[in-house]
């Protein structure tokens, strides 16, 4: 139990809980009854009493992250028609994951393959988010 002064914005509670739970502050939702509390509000403006219970809910992922943690469906196309693979990858997984996945699926592990997106050679360290990838995007493979 941490004492919050009545003029302190709830953001400080949110930050405290976030640190305590090891999640990002944007994933903490404070509820008073059914009401979602804004982190900028203070207990005084909300007329909360000492005995009032604020529920702290941790969202599965922050609203911002829902966009990014969405799985992308990326098409990886080798030089042969049959060498096409659809790979699901989250926006914040390095493309290395997709590359290894493709190599294994095609039985090409250990071969020197180059992966290109929009004409740019990929190192594998990039994240789909960095490249602005969207579902349905095509990655080309040259062996």
From TrEMBL:
Keywords (A to Z) from UniProt: Nucleus
Family matches, as Gene3D superfamilies: Phosphatidylinositol 3-kinase Catalytic Subunit, Chain A, domain 1 (3.10.20.90)
Subcellular location: Nucleus
Domain Ubiquitin-like: from-to ranges: 72-141
Matching PROSITE patterns: UBIQUITIN_2 (PS50053)
Protein's name in the database: NFATC2-interacting protein
Keyword Nucleus in record: yes
Xref: InterPro entries: NFATC2-Int_DNA_Repair, Rad60/SUMO-like_dom, Ubiquitin-like_dom, Ubiquitin-like_domsf
């Amino acid at each position: 139990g941490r004492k919050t002064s009545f003029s302190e914005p709830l953001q400080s509670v949110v930050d405290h809980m976030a640190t305590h739970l090891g999640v990002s502050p944007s994933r903490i939702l404070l509820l008073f009854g059914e009401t979602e509390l804004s982190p900028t509000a203070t207990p005084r403006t909300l007329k909360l009493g000492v005995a009032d219970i604020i529920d702290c809910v941790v969202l599965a992922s922050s609203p911002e992250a829902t966009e990014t943690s969405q799985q992308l469906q990326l098409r990886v196309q080798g030089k042969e028609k049959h060498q096409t693979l659809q790979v699901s990858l989250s926006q914040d997984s390095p493309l290395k994951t997709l590359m290894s996945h493709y190599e294994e699926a095609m039985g090409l592990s250990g071969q020197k393959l180059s992966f290109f997106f929009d004409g740019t050679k990929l190192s594998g360290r990039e994240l789909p988010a960095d490249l602005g990838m969207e579902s349905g995007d095509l990655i080309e493979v040259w062996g």
